[in-house]
Amino acid sequence: MARDHSHSPPRPDHPPPQTRHRFLDLALNELLIERGLYTEAELRDMIASIDSVDPSTHGARVVARSWIDADFRRRLLNDANAAIADIGMDPGTAQLRVLENTPETHNVVVCTLCSCYPRALLGRPPAWYRDREYRARVVREPRAVLAEFGLSLAEEQTVRVHDSTAELRFLVLPERPAGTGHLAESELAGLVTRDGMIGVAKR
Ligand code: FE
Description:
Elements: H1 20-34, H2 40-51, H3 59-68, H4 70-78, H5 80-86, E1 95-100, E2 105-110, H6 119-122, H7 127-130, H8 132-140, H9 142-148, E3 158-163, E4 168-173, H10 185-189, H11 194-198
Parallel strand pairs: 1-4, 2-3
This protein binds fe (iii) ion (FE).
């Protein structure tokens, strides 16, 4: 049965919003603002900057660049944080590893514990990424989960599942589609989706 990813699935392992954690969060924020560590305006700016990250203008740009620039691709796979900073983009504070899809290997990313995600490149994670069902099942039966996303992999292709942590985040580098030799970098970026960079879609 296909899953419907258009709505937030039930999350029995996540507390409802009005919890002790939410109150602690509010109280801590008030305290830090009162103590002058940051202002309310700075907090608003911080949230706005997180919300401004769009996979199509951030992660997809990195992927498209790597498709047209072999030297950048090599540096990206070797040291993603440095390579991304070199092109004037923010790779985020955690270590980032870029996982190259090939005809032999398909990579998919999860955070089995919570929702660690390359937010500087993909923005906020989708609801299903935080869902307990995805987190548990993609590890046990990745092919079945990918098929539910509409991605059927060849029998001989190896699937690698990568578990993110607070210190280490992953971005999947999809294969460049055939017949795109004439496209400019910005047009190539338009072919790359958030789901492709998580690894639940081909690109
Ligand atoms: Fe996490």
